[in-house]
């Protein structure tokens, strides 16, 4: 699975990095995005939902791990 | 319970409520004594703090504004309560400092940060439209850089003590405000006896309003610059719905209190020199966009442990000192014997705004990384 490590980047970079990665991701595949703050998690989640992706996340030791499935 | 709150604050209604509360409290703060169309102005209030500490000696703009203190501490309380206090630092601090300096120089050329631009609009000051247009252009340039791969790099987790520096600094300012020590005869701490610095609501009112705003803004990530950036960058109208609510509610409350006066000329603490209102805010908008947040957002972030935002804030306070020591800040329109004398900025101020835009462009072009 492709991973975007956006930990430590501030708004809106996690979203931009996610967007760029989603562009090249084949439909039906999953993207893992690592972020540090709730702000970044919510921004990435909101963006992915606008792209009609399925989004889930869980907590990690230093933040959150989002799994985004491209439709 | 805390999850339900978090979900509400992350929702559209959460951000709209926050914007509405800010608009309401800003108009009430003006009614309670803050300067006209300046119920809240992050840039102006930081400038007043710089003056109170003697970092500049413009006698009319010196006061330790409790709103700034409370913005940071309200955010700290919210972050602690919801377990979001995350001490972090190390993302291009010197760049953030310089961006803070020039953001302030740009904002003071216009005589207000984005927050005050919105409140000036809600008070009928049509110069705000020119300023906001500049802000949008500045942010648009910033968005272009972001799309090209502009980045300030990663921050890293740091020991808790680093995250506490800004909140503790604010408690220190609060003590200076409450006890008003005089460190030498005729010396700091300075408090204006006339002019905008002498106009303020009671300390407890300012503190209370600021704490509420700091708390709500930390929960909802309210950001004036971010609201425009997100629309341009992604068509995302989440944050701007809060900004819209701010303007609408502030306008309604201003109408009720008779605080609306439409026009360009001789508006309170404002000038109608359109070119420099515009360019000042182009600079501010660009600097805020490159730094990742409006001046309010930078305060809220510094309250939740972000050492890099704290450096930006200190840059803004330093920029305020430069602005007044070097006569860069705008002078308001004046009525002399019934005739309007249009204010504006000095040649030095004009040079500083142009220099600031150039510096931001150089930073925008050079701080790049190709996305993986």
Sequence stretches where pLDDT stays below 50 over 5 or more residues of chain B: none
Helix segment tally of chain B: 15
At the first level of CATH, the class of chain A is: Alpha Beta
Share of β-strand residues of chain A: 25-35%
Average pLDDT of chain B: 96
| Class by alpha and beta content of chain B | mainly alpha
Question: What is the tally of beta strands of chain A?
Answer: 4
SS elements, strand count of chain B: 4
Counting structural domains of chain A, the number is 1
The assigned CATH architecture of chain A is 2-Layer Sandwich
Q: Which percent range fits the helix content of chain B? A: 55-70%
Q: How would you write the strand order of the largest sheet of chain A?
A: 1-2-4-3
User: What is the terminal separation of chain B in angstroms?
Assistant: 39 Å
Order of helices and strands of chain B: HHHHEHHHEHHHHHHHEEH
Overall 3D geometry of chain A?
Answer: globular
Query: Which regions of chain A are unreliable across 5 or more consecutive residues at pLDDT < 50?
Result: none
Radius of gyration from the alpha-carbon trace of chain B, in angstroms: 19 Å
State the separation between the terminal residues of chain A, measured CA to CA.
Answer: 15 Å
The number of distinct structural domains of chain B comes to 1
Query: Roughly how many Å is the radius of gyration of chain A?
Result: 11 Å
């Amino acid at each position: 699975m492709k991973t975007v490590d956006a930990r430590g980047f501030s708004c809106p970079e996690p979203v931009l990095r996610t967007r760029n990665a989603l562009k090249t991701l084949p439909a039906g595949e999953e993207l893992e995005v690592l972020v540090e703050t709730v702000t970044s998690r919510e921004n990435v989640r909101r963006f992915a939902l606008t792209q009609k992706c399925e989004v889930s996340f869980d907590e990690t030791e230093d933040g959150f791990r989002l799994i985004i499935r491209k439709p | 319970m805390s999850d339900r709150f978090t979900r509400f604050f992350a929702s559209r209604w959460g951000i709209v409520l926050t914007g509405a509360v800010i608009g309401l409290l800003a108009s009430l703060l003006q009614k309670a004594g803050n300067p006209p169309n300046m119920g809240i102005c992050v840039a102006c209030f930081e400038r007043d703090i710089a003056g109170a500490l003697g970092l500049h000696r413009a006698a009319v703009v010196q006061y330790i504004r409790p709103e700034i203190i409370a913005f940071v501490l309200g955010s700290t309380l919210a972050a602690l309560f919801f377990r979001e206090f995350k001490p972090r630092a190390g993302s291009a601090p010197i760049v953030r400092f310089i961006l803070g300096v020039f953001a302030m120089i740009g904002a003071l050329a216009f005589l207000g940060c984005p927050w005050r631009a919105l409140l000036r609009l809600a008070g009928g000051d049509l110069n705000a439209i020119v300023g906001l247009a500049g802000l949008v252009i500045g942010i648009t340039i910033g968005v272009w850089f972001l799309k090209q791969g502009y980045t300030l790099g990663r921050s890293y987790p740091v020991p808790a003590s680093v995250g506490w520096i800004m909140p503790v600094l604010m408690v220190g300012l609060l003590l200076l405000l409450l006890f008003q020590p005089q460190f030498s005869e005729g010396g700091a701490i300075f408090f204006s006896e006339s002019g905008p610095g002498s106009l303020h609501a009671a300390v407890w009112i300012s503190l209370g309003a600021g704490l509420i705003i700091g708390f709500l803004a930390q929960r909802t990530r309210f950001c004036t610059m971010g609201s425009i950036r997100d629309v341009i960058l992604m068509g995302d109208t989440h944050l701007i719905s809060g900004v819209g609510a701010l303007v609408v509610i502030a306008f309604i409350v201003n109408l009720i209190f008779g605080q609306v006066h439409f026009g360009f000329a001789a508006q309170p603490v404002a000038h109608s020199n359109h070119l420099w209102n515009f360019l000042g805010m182009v600079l501010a908008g660009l600097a805020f966009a490159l730094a990742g947040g409006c001046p309010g957002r930078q305060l809220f972030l510094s309250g939740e442990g972000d050492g890099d935002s704290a450096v930006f804030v200190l840059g803004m306070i330093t920029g305020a000192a430069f602005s007044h020591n070097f006569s860069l800040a705008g002078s308001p329109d004046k009525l002399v014997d019934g005739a309007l004398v249009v204010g504006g900025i000095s040649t030095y101020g004009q040079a500083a705004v142009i220099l600031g835009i150039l510096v931001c462009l150089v930073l925008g072009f050079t701080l790049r990384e190709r996305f993986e």
